[in-house]
Write a structure and sequence with these properties.
- The complex is a heterodimer of chains A (about 110) and B (about 600).
- In chain A, strand 3 (about 75-80) and strand 4 (about 85-90) form a beta hairpin.
- In chain A, about 40% of the residues lie in helices and about 25% in strands.
- Chain A has one domain (about 1-100): Glutaredoxin (3-Layer(aba) Sandwich), CATH 3.40.30.
- Chain A has helices at about 1-15, 30-45, 65-70, 95-100, and strands at about 20-25, 50-60, 75-80, 85-90.
- Chain A has a four-stranded mixed sheet with strand order 2-1-3-4, with helices on one face.
- Helix content of chain B is about 40%, strand content about 25%.
- Chain B has a nine-stranded mixed sheet with strand order 5-4-7-8-3-9-10-11-12, with helices on both faces. A nine-stranded mixed sheet of chain B has the order 17-16-18-19-15-20-21-22-23, with helices on both faces.
- In chain B, strand 11 and strand 12 form a beta hairpin.
- The longest helix of chain B has about 80 residues, at about 490-565.
- The chains are: A alpha+beta (about 110), B alpha/beta (about 600).
- Chain B: Keywords: Coiled coil, Hydrolase, Kinase, Phosphoprotein, Repeat, Transferase.
- Chain B: Pfam families: ATPase.
- Chain B: Its EC number is 2.7.11.1.
Amino acid sequence: MGDSEGFLESCGEDTPALAYELRLFISGASPNSIRAVENLKAICEKHLPGRYKLEIIDIHQQKELAEFDNVIALPLLIKKSPGTERRMIGDLSDTNRVLKGLGLIK
Amino acid sequence: MSEIKKNHKRPYPTLAKTLTGIVGLDEITEGGLPTGRPTLICGEAGCGKTLMSIEFIVRGAIQYSEPGVFIAFEEKIDELANNVASLGFDLMKLQDEKKIRIDHVHVDRSEIEETGEYDLEGLFIRLGYAIDSIGAKRVVLDTLENLFSGLQNQAILRTEIRRLFSFLKEKGVTAIITGERGDGSSFTRQGLEEYVSDCVILLDHRVVNQISTRRLRVIKYRGTVHGTNEYPFLIDEEGISVLPVTSLKMNNEVSSERVSTGIPALDDMLGGKGLFRGGSALVSGTAGTGKTSLAASYANETCNRGESCVYFAMEESPSQIIRNMRSIGIDLQKHVDSGLLFFNASRPNLYGLEMHLVAMHKCITKYQPRAVIIDPITNFINIASVSEVKNMLVRMIDFLQEEQISVMFTALTLNTIVNEQTDEGVSSLVDTWILVRDIEFNGERNRGLYVMKARGMKHSNQVREFTITDNGLNLVEVYLGPDGVLTGSARQEQILLEQTGEAIRTQAVSRKDREILRKRKVLESTIASLKTEYESVEEELNKIYIEEELKKQILDKSRAEVTRFRGGEEIEKTKEKTDNKSRKKDKE
């Protein structure tokens, strides 16, 4: 965790306007989905306060997006920017992997 | 599928089936794949799983108006479209018309970070959405196992795949799931067969003697009868065709119609009418005995009747055959031009035996000929054993009989020491067996033709000399001389000899005739002279008699006159009377 904070600070200094664009696909109110939303919010608040834009999509409501975004496993978190697109599946309970996916740790 | 149900009127409801539209597969499965259930198609890489499944979707959309969803885990849409464009399927157009829907699911482990519990709800929603958007009745998942390489959590995957199958059943779609063949005894690497319990089809691509053959087998089809054998199948420009060639039934209808062989003298040998329509004939013989010429003559005759004919040439190219046959006065080119004659030339080792059968089957189904020629069948030996060739030909004959197509095989006998019974072992299968043989005698080779057998017709037991002339083929009477059968120049010699004998005999006969005539004349003259003699004797006798009579009359008269004189009558009157009397006597 210490590493990540150090990284964040340096990030903040160099590119303060760096905004995280995140898209989280969930399926209704399934336990996995609820957990994923909670976990993601916690991570973002902790590591990216004010620097992220999160869009939560219930795939049941917008089925056509499933093909568009190549959704297979749910919940799915897509980091659209910065950098290359990354995909994370699961309820985001493995914080280390999430941070790694977001490029917050190496 | 409803048609199938109607066709099979059974007292109890049977499993509903969905026609695949793939040639032959519907026959093997007796109506297609189980409706509303998933079917597993498994096989090694490159055995045609994807093609078979896409054909199922496309044919469903085009032929049976059943929209279909194709979920591609391996190939992208444009790749797929390119791959099947050669089969004449325009996926993009079908997709625009909402007849099919292709969805490429890309799973790449390197792009995905697993961060906890998940499920495949996304895939379900996607699939469900795709199905609902076009009202799909058919679904293909190709290849579902790719999920295993993209996602790590096997436990989740297995649960989700189980859920997927029940989801598909719930949706009521007829589904095909493809899977790569695994090592050992399992049909698929991930053991998908344990989820699909209704129908499992195994595709196989085997190379035997450097020749590859694709085969298909229905391993399992719950609740229904199906063909259990391995069936060869072919992938060509028209897609997949499977040949359910092993028909165990022998209830073909037979025709008693006769067709000419194109050689009147041969027709004469076969009871004067030729071969049975829909029958099979084998022409066997050593090299250069005119088997191809016989076959070409038959083809020519068929076309002359206005019937179509397919000529499978295994040794010579069509142009070669046409050229060669022109030299003996058979013009096949005009029949080719008019579309009645179709040549299908291929080397036997082009593909396996079964594939040949499939290819021939396809070609025959396409052209619907009344007669088929396979020239020669012997070359099949190069690619398979005798028993396999025999098996294949049994099926071929079976199929042709069913279609009422006449067939003529030619076969090369390799050894001149007569080994007639083993011409690919098919001589027992065919209805008519014509043997053309070299007769070597007197420093020359000539051809002799025998009808070894002809089922169900009167046929000649004679050996006939078979000649190939500028005007076609002909059969000549074979001469039986004191030294055996005479052919060629020996026959000519014999003919001359006999002609000479004939002349001499004629001469002798005419001499005898003259002799008889002379004798008759002599006899006749003798008879005439005897007659004359008789006449003269008769006359002599008559003369004496008359004289005697006259004498007697005169005596009587004179006696009477004397009496009268004595009585005193006139002499004159009496004289007159006497004259009249004598005249009367003369007349009498």
